[in-house]
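Two proteins follow. First one:
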Amino acid sequence: MKFLEYTPLDRINDFLSELNLGERTIKGSLEAYSCKHTGTDKRLSLSLENEILDYLGKSSDNDSSSPVEFLLSRSSAVKAHQFFTEESWDTFKQIFDAYMLEASKEWIETYGGSSLLETLYKALDEVVKLSECEIYSYNSDSDADPFLEKGAIWSFSFFFYNRKLKRVVSFNFSCLSNLVADGFLAENLCYEEDGEIFDNMDI
C-alpha cells in the first residue's frame, strides 16, 4: 500500500481541513493509495478480500486486489463485513448533499463557479475514474471508530476503489462540536449542577 499525491485533491483538502462554522467545525480528508502489493501483503489482502466478497455475494480472482487491506489497516474492526457496505454514487450524493450543505455554501462563497460536489466528482474521476469504481462506506460502532474525533456530531467514511487501476481514494468527513472540543459543555454542566445545589440552600 502506497500513498499517492494528487493535485486535484489538494484544494478540497485545504478547504475542508478545518472549516469553522461557529459552534461547529466541518472537517474532511481525501487520500489516494495504490493497492499494488507483493508477497505476504498480497496473500493477506486476498484472504481478507475473500471474506468481504463472500459477504457481498461476489467472487474474486487471483489477479484482483481490493480496498479491504487498506480499510482494515485503517480500522480496528475484527470482522470486516460488520463495518463495510457497498454503496452507489447516488447514495453517496444524497448523504453529501444532506450533511455538507453548509460546507457547500461556504465553498461557493469562497471559490464560486462549480459546486463542492461537482469539484469533488471531477477530482475523484481524475484519480480513480468513478464510472469504473466500487464504492464502500465504513459503518463502525462509535466506540471503536478510529475515524471518530472528540465532539463529533456525525461522521462518514467512503472509499472509491478502481479494480483495474488498483487504486483507492478514501474520503472522511465529519462535523465536530466546537463547544465539546473546547470543554464548554462539561464545564457548563458542572456550573449548572453547582447552581442547582446552591438554589436549594438558604444563603
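Second one, unrelated to the first:
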Amino acid sequence: MAIWGGGAAAAALVLSLALQLAAMADAQETASIFPAMILFGDSSVDSGNNNYLPTAFKANYPPYGKDFIGHQPTGRFCNGKLTTDITADILGFKTYPPAYLSPQAKGKNLLFGANFGSAAAGYDDTTALINHAIPLSQQLEYYKEYRVQLSKVAGTKKAAAIIKDALYIVGFGTADFLQNYYVNPTLKKLYTTPDQYSTHLATFFSSFIKDLYGLGARRIGVVPLPPLGCFPETIALFRFPKHGCIHRINNDAQGFNNKINTTAITLQKQLLALKIVVFDIFKPLHHVITSPSDYVLQKPGKVAARQAKQGQLPYSVIQSL
C-alpha cells in the first residue's frame, strides 16, 4: 500500500492545501475556520479504522508511527502525521478527528469530527469488498450514525451548526486502480480502458457528493489521485527495470483527476450552497519526486544530503518560495 503522509509529500502539500481551504471559508471567519473535520477515504486519511477489520491492509505495527506522537503505530499508513493531520494543525485544531471504529470515537471527541477512512477502500464499493475494507457506502452509513451521536452530545442546534460548517475531506481512487482495476481481469473486460473506468468512478463520486450535501455537508475538499506511476508499489508490480516513474499510469491518474474536476464544477452549479475544492496534489508531488534539488531539506546531516543526491524523499522538506 503506497502512502503519502508524514514526509516530503505532506510537507510539500500543506501550504497549498491550507490556501485552498481558506478560500472555502467565509470572509469574516478568522480564528477558527472550521468547527470540525469529517474525513472519508482510503489510506491517505485512515487513522486507525482498519485496526478493527479482518483485512491485510493494516498499519498497526512498526515502523509505522515511529515519528508520530508517542512514537507508536496508530493505524496511520505513514511514519508520522498524515497530510490531513498536518492540515488540521494548520487550521488550529488541538486534536484530530477520531477513527470512527476506535474506542475514542465517543462523547466530546465527536465535537471535532470523525474519520471514516479505510485503507484499500475506493469510490467503487467492490474495491473495498475484495480488500475487506470499509466500502464508500458503509462510510456514508457510519456518517449517518455519527450525526445522531453528535446530536446527543452537542444538542440538536449545535450539532446542526457543526455539520453545516465542518470541513469534509474526500480522498479515494488509489485503491480503485492499484488494488482493483490494474490487477482485476474481470473488471478490465467490463471497462476496457482506464478512461472508461475513470468515468465509472466519477459517477460514484458525483452520487456521493450529492448524498453528503443532502445530509448537510456544505464545504468539501476533494483529494484526487497523486502520481500513481511513481509509487514504489506500482514500479515493483508493473515496471522492468525497477526504476523510474511509469508515465502510462501517471497519465491514467491525470485523466481521472480531470474527470473529478469536471464533475465537481458541474456539482457546484447544481448544488448552490456547496463549496467544493479539488486540491491540486498531482503537480507538487510529482515535482518533489522528479526535482528534489528544488527543495530545502529540513533533516540535518549527511543523510539528508545523500537522500537529495540520490533523488529519495527526506523526512521533511519545504518548497523554496
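SUMMARY FIELD: The radius of gyration is 19 Å. The chain has a mean pLDDT of 85.
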